[in-house]
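Duplicate of earlier report; Putative ABC transporter ATP-binding protein input re-posted below.
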Amino acid sequence: MKKTNVIQVEDLTKMFGDFKAVNGITFEVKKGEIFGFLGANGAGKTTAMKMLIGISIPTSGKAHVAGFDVFTQAEDIKKNIGYMSQKFALYDDLTVKENISFFGGIYGLTKARIKEKTKELIEDLGLQEVSNQLVGSLPLGWKQKISFSVALLHEPKIVFLDEPTGGVDPITRRQFWEMIYKAAHDGTTIFVTTHYMDEAEYCDRVSIMVNGKIEALNTPKKLKEQFQVDNMNDVFLKLARG
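Output:
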């Protein structure tokens, strides 16, 4: 059975004056896919992601996210996606429960649904003992897991994760990826940027941006075959060196 595309991008471009930060990129992402969006700092991946999540208007090209046009339906896109930034969007001066309730309200969930989702999330993450603690007092790994779960509260079609595992230990990174796999298995599409090349191996497909352009796009296995290397880090190095 062929999976439908939930992100469709064609010749998408973003100019800042005379500078092309994103230079005519074209790709699609399928429902339930874990799609890795890689590139060095300054490659254009963050600019591209901002266009896709509806907070930056493209200069030219076409893009649809969750069935909505990035030019004319940015607000509809925001309602149908989850987003987790590198800095985590949780409020340190609210408790775990208060954070869940707050974001549930922003996402438009009813009070009954927020109560239900709060109970479910706390049980799933094993947070019963810390649910009334301020988020600011928790380890980074816990904040990360809660932040991802909060991004899934309203059951979005797509979740965008911007460098989600930066700064945490390898065990927590692995646990986080288990959460990503579960969400994808449940039908949520995951669009993730990462600078950890070993994490690219966990993705169904990977695109690699260099100087505003997508220079490679395929499964990790096929990219390694194409560049005749044993790991994704070497694929990235070959592309970066031109």
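The mean pLDDT is 91.

Merging into the original ticket.
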